[in-house]
């Protein structure tokens, strides 16, 4: 059973890494499930505090990933309409089967939101660029968390591999 849980945990780790770059998959929560599966094996001592701490981080990063593009739009001069447009664009980009829709969606949403607020095109483009930078920042944060969790997984596995195999 330990080998099955470890392999399943490794699969979730790989999905978590992919999900940190592909917005369709929730990267950090998937990586956390990989850690949980590893700690469910009989070979690895349970570390509840570690699992709770890493879960909080995974959920925090997961939530921030949807907020950071709107913050980026605001930071680059966007209004509330631009922030709302960014969020709507992100949701639409997730739902539409367009390649790059999650990247394009917040950008276009911020631009349309600013234009609906009677802002000139330069300011609207600046806000849209801010939402794009916010998206890239969120992706980078997810990737860092997924890499760190993968490192935890490998180090714990390496330490207890003789008990699992």
UniProtKB/TrEMBL annotation:
Q: What does UniProt give as the signal peptide span?
A: none
Checking InterPro entries in the record gives: DUF456
Q: Does the keyword Nuclease apply?
A: no
- TM ranges are 50-68, 88-112, 132-158
| This protein's record includes keyword Transmembrane | yes
- Record key words, sorted: Membrane, Transmembrane, Transmembrane helix
This protein's name: DUF456 domain-containing protein
């Amino acid at each position: 059973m330990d080998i099955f849980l470890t392999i399943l945990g490794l699969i979730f780790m790989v999905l978590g890494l992919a999900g940190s770059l592909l917005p369709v998959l929730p990267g950090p929560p998937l990586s956390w499930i990989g850690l949980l599966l590893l700690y469910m094996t009989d070979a690895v001592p349970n570390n509840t505090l570690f699992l709770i701490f890493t879960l909080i981080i995974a959920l925090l990063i997961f939530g921030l990933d949807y907020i950071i593009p709107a913050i980026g739009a605001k930071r680059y001069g966007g209004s509330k309409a631009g922030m709302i447009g960014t969020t709507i664009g992100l949701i639409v980009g997730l739902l539409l089967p367009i390649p790059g829709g999650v990247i394009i969606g917040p950008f276009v949403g911020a631009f349309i939101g600013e234009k609906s607020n009677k802002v000139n095109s330069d300011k609207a483009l600046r806000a849209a660029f801010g939402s794009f930078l916010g998206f890239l920042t969120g992706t980078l944060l997810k990737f860092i968390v997924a890499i760190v969790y993968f490192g935890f997984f490998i180090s714990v596995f390496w330490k207890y591999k003789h008990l699992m195999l």
